[in-house]
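Possible regression after last week's pipeline update?

I re-ran a chain I had predicted before the update to compare outputs. Posting the input and the new output here so someone can diff against the archived version. Not blocking, just want to make sure nothing changed silently.
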Amino acid sequence: MSKPGKSVMPTGLRGVGKTVLLGEFAKIAEPQGYIIASIEAPETGEFRRMFANRIRRALIDLSEGPTIATVNAALRVFKSFSLTFPHDVSVSVDVQPMRGRADSRVFADDLSDLLIATAEAARDRKRGILILIDEVQYLSPEEFAAVITAIHGTSQRNLPAVLVGAGLPQLPKLAGEAKSYAERLFTFPRIGSLTESEACTAVAEPARDVGVTFSDDALAEIYRQTQGYPYFLQEWAYSVWNIAPKSPIEAADAMAAEPHILRSLDEDFFSVRFERLRPAEKRYLRAMASLGSEPQRSSTIAREYGLPATSVARIRQDLIEKGLLYSQEHGETAFTVPLFDQFLLRRMPTMELAPAVEVDSNGGGMSPELS
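New output (post-update):
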């Protein structure tokens, strides 16, 4: 098989196609002999168990065929790793554990032992391991550091293990905080909105293939409404297609479809995220929305919210952890969901009263509803 490439972590806002891109990596890797271990990082702290399940499947795959010492060794290392789990979690194989490997209960060390042993087995089978992790920002700092350490270990040994992790724009910052050498292990390509030319091509070419055309004005109107974000382009093109009475599809058709599309997005795409929030979090986002869609200074948002920045710092952090906001630069905050500011202005036409905020023992703000 070919030599494994450098691990990569595509980043971008929601709806730009990062998850689809992970699937494309899998399609490329499988014909080259790679076993795919795909994980969507959970918000619930279940990453260790999920990772172990994917590696177990890979080892079962590698176990097929003539006996190889490194495959047996990897199975034993996996057994050691499984014994570090709480008693109510069962992820194991029926072999004797390998003492001294993956049994330290230090997650970074144990995960490194497991991935190195698995990659050695894959190498001797003339295979490889491709680990796909979506929503990487939901990993805890300990989990993220352990993944980076494990990939570093396989990279140093030139083993056929590659990680592709996708997530929100703060990934380079989080990776650097987890391990200072992360920037040497990964590339972080930014996936963004399409240019107007690219967006028009994405809408027009599939339609042309079935004998339908969009006027230039219609394409320009769709681009204006979607700002070139792939998910929204799909939604607009679908709805405009269904509303337009004939070909060519005109700008008037795109404008007529807009209220229907926004209602659908508000009820589904946006509301799924909005309804998870507490009142104080909704107000914080609404304060941001009133300032515009571009990144905002935390102090400016707090002023719009109606309280000092220290009093709403915890609300901001909770929203970052929920994946609604991100911060690439110190003191700056931005939405992770394109067009979310416009949804908030529609959903909350006026600002609600700021909740009372108590002061915690460290001098920071703590709203009663958040405590």
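Follow-up from reviewer: compared with the archived run. The chain is about 50% helix and 10% strand. Marking as no regression found.
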